[in-house]
Every structure is written in C-alpha cells, then in structure tokens.
Amino acid sequence: MAKPATQRPKLPRAGRLGLVEPTAPADLDRLGWNTEAHVELLWSLSRAPDADEALKAMVRLTEALGANWAQLRDALLKDKGLRGRLFGVLGSSLALGDHVVANPDSWHLLSGDVTLPSADELRSMFIDLAEKTTDATSALHPLRRLYRDRLLVLAGLDLASTVENEPVVPFVDVAAHLSDIADAALDAALTVALRQVGGDAPRIAIIAMGKCGARELNYVSDVDVIFVTDNADSVTIRVAGEMMRFAADAFFEVDAALRPEGKHGQLVRTLESHVAYYQRWAKTWEFQALMKARPAAGDLELGRQYIDALMPMVWTASEREDFVAEVQAMRRRVEELVPADVRVREIKLGTGGLRDVEFAVQLLQLVHGRNDESLHVASTVDALHALGAGGYIGRDDAANLTASYEFLRLLEHRLQLQRLKRTHMLPDEDDDEAMRWLARAAHMRPDGRHDAPGVLREELKRQNLRVSRLHAKLFYQPLLESAGQPAMLTTKAAERQLAALGYEGPSSALTHLTALTSASGRRGRVQQVLLPTLLDWLSDTPDPDAGLLSYRRISEELSEARWYLSTLRDEGAVAKRLMRVLGTSAYVPELLMRAPEVIQSYADGPDGPKLLDVEPDGLARALVASAGRHADPLRAIAAARTLRRRELARIASADLLGMLEVTEVCQALTSVWVAVLQAALDVVIRDNTPESGVPARIAVIGMGRLGGGELGYGSDADVLFVCEPNDGVDESVAVRWSVSIAEKIRTLLGTPSADPPLEVDANLRPEGRSGPLVRTLASYEAYYTRYAQVWEVQALLRAHRVAGDLDLGERFLKMIDKTRYPPGGVSAEAVREIRRIKARVDAERLPRGADPNTHTKLGRGGLADIEWTVQLLQLRHAHEVPALHNTSTLASLDAIGAAELIAEGDVDLLRQAWLTATRARNALVLVRGKPIDQLPGPGRQLNAVALAAGWDTDDGGEFLDNYLRVTRRAKAVVRKVFGA
C-alpha cells in the first residue's frame, strides 16, 4: 500500500546515502543530522559527486565556524540553492573545500540569490582591492582570497545542478566568466606591479592569448599573454616581470612564451616592433596563435591598436609558401606530445580529444577566413557556429562537434576543480571510484544497463569516436559536396582547402574527387562515405596528390569488384594501410593495379597481418607449379609473372607498413627471383628437349646479391650457367644445347612487361661478355685454376647455387672453394690489386653529377664500400676462419667480429651502414617506382624515402642527417681496412 503523501520519509542510513567511509555515521552525529528534520538535507548530501568528501568537509567547516555553525545549519535547511552550491563544491573540489574551511564565512557567497558579476564589476573588485594595499606583500593575501572566492561562486553555480534541480550554467558562460576573472586579476597584478616599481607609469597593454584570449578559459590554466608598450625601456620590462611574478603567487601562472622569438625574445616590445617581426619573421603557428589574441588588461586602447595592426596578417597566413609544411609539422608535434601508453586517457591531446577539434576548426578558419569575415572569431564554439552558418561544414556536424567539445571541456573542468591543478588526464580505466566521482560531477547517473562509471566510459568512447570521425569529415565532406551538385563550397574555396591540407595540385585533386563521387549508384554513395576518412589519412602521407590519383585509378580498375569498396568500408585497417602505401610509393600502386587481390591481405588475421601469412618455400613451389601447367612457354612465364607480381606487391606493402625487417625483405625478394629462375629453366628445358632426351644437366649459380640472398627491389639477377653432358652425349652437343637454353631463359624473362623487369645478367662469367655463356664444370675448373683474375676470385665469394640440378650446383661450389678460399689466403700481390681496383672504382664509377655523400651504392660508406671491405677480409682470412665461408655480407660481418679480425665497434659501424644504405636503396625504388641509387635533396620526395625506409617520422632532414652520420663513420673504417 502506498504511504500517505503527508508521511515523512524515514531517516536513511549512511549506506543508502552513498557514504562508505567508516566514520560517516559518527560524522553525521557530530553535525546533528540525525533527525527526520534533516532528511531532505541528507538526500541532498547524498547527491554530491563525492558524498564522503562533502561530509568530511562539512565537519571541518563546523569546527571552523564554532558558534556561528548554527547560522549555516539553519540556512542549509531553508535554502535549497545553498545546499546545491555548497555540497556540489565540497563533493567535487578538495581545494575549494580547503578554501571554505580556511575562510569559513565565505559560505555566505553561496547563499540566497547568487548571480555572476559582469566583467566591469569584476575589474572594479580586483583593482579597488589592489589600490587599497601599499605593496605586493600586503596585496598578496587579500587578492588571492578574492580570486578563490570568485572561483568558489562560479563553481558553486556550475555544480549546483549535480545536487539540486538548479539551472545548469552553460559551458560557454563558465569559460567566459573564468576569462573575465583572469582579466580582472591581470589588471590587479599590473596595478600592484606599477606601484612596486614606482615612477611614471608606462603605457602597457596586456594581450590575452590562447584560451583566455578566446574567452574559453579553464578553471586551472596558464594564462598566455603578450606585452605591448609605447616605450620598451627597462622600467616597462621590470613592470611586466613584476606583474608576472605577482600573478603567479596570487592567481595563476602567466606565460609570455607566445611572444615574438618565444622565451628567448624580448619580454616587452613596442607596437612597431611587433608589426616588423610578424611581417618578416613570424612562422605560420604564430599567426594561428594570434587568432585568439584579445586586449585583456592595461591600456586597452593600445591593445586594440595591436589587434588592428596584426589581424590582417593572420587572415592571409594561408597564402604563405610554408603554410602546409608548418601546419603538418605542428600536427605531428601535437601527436608526439602524448605517450602511447596514456593516449586513451589524455582528454586534450589524445585521439578524438580537444586538440583534434581545435586544430580542425582553426585550420578551416585560416583557409577560408581571408574571404569571409564571419569566421574572424576567437572561440572554438563561435567558430563552429560560423563555419556551419557559412556552409563550410554541415550544420548538424557543427552542432554535434560543439556538443562533443563542450562535453570534453566539462570533464576537463571537473578534473581540474578537484585539486585546482592543471590536468587533462582521465582516471585510470580500472579506477571505479575515481570514475564514479567524475561521472557524478559531470551529471551522469546509472542508466539501468551501466553503473555511473560504466555510463561515463561508454559516453567517452562515443564522444571520442564522434570527434575522430568529424575531425576527418570536417575537412573533406564539403569538398565532396562541392565536387558534386549542388556545391557547398565554391571551386576556389575547395581548392584553397585542399591546398591547406597538403595537396600541391588542388585542382587535379578536386577533379579526382569529382570522378570518384560521381560514380553511379552504390559505388558513388560508398565513396561519399569513405572519402572523408581516406582523404584525412592521405593528407598524413608524403605525397597525397599521387596517393589520390592512385586511389582513383585502382577504384576505376576495380569498379566491378564488389569486394573492393566493401572491404575498405568494413575493414578500417585495410583502408588506412592502403592510403599510407598509395601516398608513399609509386612502385606498389602499379603492382596493385594488376594484382588487386593483395589489398585484401592488408587485413588482420587471427595470427597477425595477412600480408605475413606466406611461407617462402610454399610460394616457390606454387610459382613453379603454376608455370608448369602451361605448354606454351610464353603463357607459362606469364603465369610465373602473375605470382611474382602478387608477391612483389605483398613484400613491398609489408615493407612500407613496417611489418618486415630489411633483411627479411632481401631474403623474400631473393626467394622470388630463385623461384622465377627455376620455373623458367623447367619450362624452357621441357619445350626444347629433343626426342633423344635431355642432352645435359644445367645448374644456375647465383652471383652478387642473388648469391648472397640480399636482393633489393631494383636488383638484376647475376648468374653463371653450368652444364654437364648426360651419359653418351658429346660435350659439344651438350654445351650448344645448354647455351640455347640459357639464351631462351634470358629472352623469355627479358620480354618487355608492365611489371618490374626480370633482367638476367651473366657478365660475371669467365672472360666476361666475350666468354661463352655456358661452360661445363670441367671448363670452369680449368679456367679458374689457370686464368682467374683477382676480381673474378672476389666475385666467386658470392656464388651460390640457386636453380637447376642441385648436385651439379653443389659440385660447382666445392670446386670453386679452392679458388675463393685458397690455403694460406690470397697473396699480398692480390691484396694490392684489390686495393688498386677499389681506388679506381671510387674515382671512376660514380655517375656524373652524383653526390658521393648520398649515393647509396657507390657513395661514401655505401654498399660497395661495405661489401668490398668484407670481401677483402674474407679473401685474407677465410682459410683460417671457416665461418667466413658464406655469401652473406651480414653473416660475414658477424664472423669477422667473432674472430676479432677488426674491432667490434668497427664491425658494428659497417653493419649499421650496410643496413642503412640497403634500406635507403630499397626505399628509393618504392618511392620512385624505378631503380635509383641517389638520395634526393630536402623536400617531399626525401620525406617519402624516410618513411619508406622505416624512419620514425617522415622528416627527411633527420633521416638524411642520420644517413650521412652513419656512412661517414663507416667510411673511416673502410679506409682503415684498405690501408692496412
């Protein structure tokens, strides 16, 4: 039965009030809140974000008030607004609770009809109090209390709705009032400083920057300022310094680091000096900072002159040549500020955080603001409204992003209020108590499915996801709508926006967008959904223009493949990885055009990325088997090319995405070449076998990087062909047949193709190009025994069987061992000859116009230097160090170090140089799409090479500096070894 409406509720127990501290019942008794007259008061207390902390603070306040406690008690019973404001503050802010306890009469500020004073009223409060004091010492305590009192009143109004059904103070009003308090505090600090310094008062304006300048300040924040004066003498500089010191002691830190030249620049400048600096020296980020500049204190007329002089420069900053590069660098710096392990907790700088909103909004303002004065606003919320009203972003998107921004700022305010400390870090995900407090402080309660912490976690995920999605859409959706009909932006405005996002050919980029989004039916609709995010990812790559063109070409090629757009839509990892590849490489897109199924392997499988789900031996068998299914040699080689194309696309994609080490890349590329050679040999022998049977056995010996298992993307296959007559076959017949087989292999593989070339180079054979293409094992043995030159002996160090008759290949290797690893080592004369040849190579082989410092193969400390050094040591010591009997440069370096032939530090320098040069050489092919050995100069292409080479960032300058440092040190080792 329902109880009568007149029946008073029973007095709740502490547990039902959310009080979990063991001392809570005793504390309630100490307050005397143990009768039915206190029921409403107790339920109000229970709604405080942290009821236990509120109760403990009330007990301390009671003790501080002493006999005056009864007045507060009676007021709490009668004044619901006071209960909401006081319990809200005490349950949310330990620091403000301490302030109330230290100044117990301050509770009166929260009682009755509480309103917020205007900016002028605040300024009068602070300045009047400052003028009543005689010096900084006497001013400090009263001004500090006034500042905390004003925070207390604002926080009370802000938090009252968490406890009682009081009106919610809009976020923009809270942030604006905090800025007004800061302005008044700055003026008070300036008043104190002027009195402290004495003499004639200089004319000085304080320009608020950042959040204060935009009137969107936090409860706890540094206040960024710039000082302007009409006379930057020592007195003015001293006034500014004293003002900053006093403000830091009384109110908050004042940061003048946004001034010209930053912390190293002059603290105070004249207006003319400011104008000269921004005209000649300022960087793009400095103009972006000026978007929020506002006269805040001091001589406001001088401050307005400052704004009038500089604002025209702000709204033309997007026309600067370095605009895109500096904006991208600034974005990278923001991302790098947050350690990966706390990124999900960082409400400001983390993914989907406040800075994502602010960065996107400010960039759009800079791009479009030079032609639209409605965008000349400072606050983020006002700017979002203006962007929506102007059609630069959708109205719904503007409203949603504003809501997300205000939600995240609300959490930021609550976190800072707790201890009045500057923080943007959410509690640990597993800290239920901290999450419960924050949820309640942010007006969140259980929803039936989740408790309060659960509600907060779900809401954070939703808001972060929405910000991330809209951050991308904010830039690109208007562009896509402009590409179709009706246009949201004019063509010129769309091109400006694309240019600001890093596209060097904005008109071409807009053409690509038009082509992609105008596709009929489902394809066009899916592209409209995908492109905002894809374009955002592309803008982070070194060459978004080339990436967008490649994406268009692939999309048109796969227009009938149903899986393609569905995969990009449903598999976020696939789409993101594809954009990185397309925006970095000219090599891979051409392969993907003819092997698009590789895109599906960009997805993650149960054991990791599918790009790595390939077993090299299995691939080799599949390639040989695929070629073997075709009777026609041309079709057989075409089948082998198809599998090779897929494998090259797979390897290169995994390489660009950082999934393979450089040694794994070289081994994988070598395996592909070996499989192709075996397939070609099998096909040609099968097609050219006479009725009497195969005349000879043939082995293919890999030389150079093929023999060493160290092929790069642009490497040819250096080989030797060895034959041996079968029983009953005349040697001359066997050799002629074997030569025809070798020639047909070279011709078939060398046929022009859209794929990377398959050049088979046999010029390392005895007598070079003038010698026979194929020799018998006995002929090779006779030649190497009697005529082998030093360079030929050196070349044999990399010889390894790769295809054909394995037994014949093994016997060839054993035969040449006595030549390449002679007992006692090579002669002193041979060593001198190698040194002479190396000196000639250094002097003559470098291409005309090449930079010897950055040529990855023949340059200083490049691949040739390292390999010649290793091979010289092999020739001199392999007879006594069996571990040197191998064809790998790195394995030989390990053996050299283990045998202490040279210092371990020198071995490490050579190893690092070889790896660095190999990565760079491979990256050059990936970026340029063709074999090239010369690193480019600073610019977009070098940035792409850095990224493709696995550098931590796409900062080409840092990558180049590292390359030069590593190779310079390695060259010193090379000179030492060759001079020994």
From TrEMBL:
Swiss-Prot/TrEMBL keywords: ATP-binding, Magnesium, Multifunctional enzyme, Nucleotide-binding, Nucleotidyltransferase, Transferase
KW GTP-binding (keyword) present: no
GO MF annotation list: [glutamate-ammonia-ligase] adenylyltransferase activity; [glutamine synthetase]-adenylyl-L-tyrosine phosphorylase activity
Annotated catalysed reactions: [glutamine synthetase]-O(4)-(5'-adenylyl)-L-tyrosine + phosphate = [glutamine synthetase]-L-tyrosine + ADP; [glutamine synthetase]-L-tyrosine + ATP = [glutamine synthetase]-O(4)-(5'-adenylyl)-L-tyrosine + diphosphate
Enzyme Commission number: 2.7.7.89, 2.7.7.42
Domain Glutamate-ammonia ligase adenylyltransferase repeated positions: 86-304, 576-814
Region Adenylyl removase, residue ranges: 1-479
Cofactors, names only: Mg(2+)
Pfam families with a match to the protein in the record: GlnD_UR_UTase, GlnE
Ranges for domain PII-uridylyltransferase/Glutamine-synthetase adenylyltransferase: 328-475, 838-978
Adenylyl transferase, as annotated region: 486-980
InterPro entries per the UniProt record, alphabetical: GlnE, GlnE_rpt_dom, NT_sf, PII_UdlTrfase/GS_AdlTrfase
Record-linked HAMAP family: GlnE (MF_00802)
Described function: Involved in the regulation of glutamine synthetase GlnA, a key enzyme in the process to assimilate ammonia. When cellular nitrogen levels are high, the C-terminal adenylyl transferase (AT) inactivates GlnA by covalent transfer of an adenylyl group from ATP to specific tyrosine residue of GlnA, thus reducing its activity. Conversely, when nitrogen levels are low, the N-terminal adenylyl removase (AR) activates GlnA by removing the adenylyl group by phosphorolysis, increasing its activity.
Family that this chain belongs to: Belongs to the GlnE family.
Protein name per UniProt: Bifunctional glutamine synthetase adenylyltransferase/adenylyl-removing enzyme
Organism: Mycobacterium deserti
Lineage: Bacteria, Bacillati, Actinomycetota, Actinomycetes, Mycobacteriales
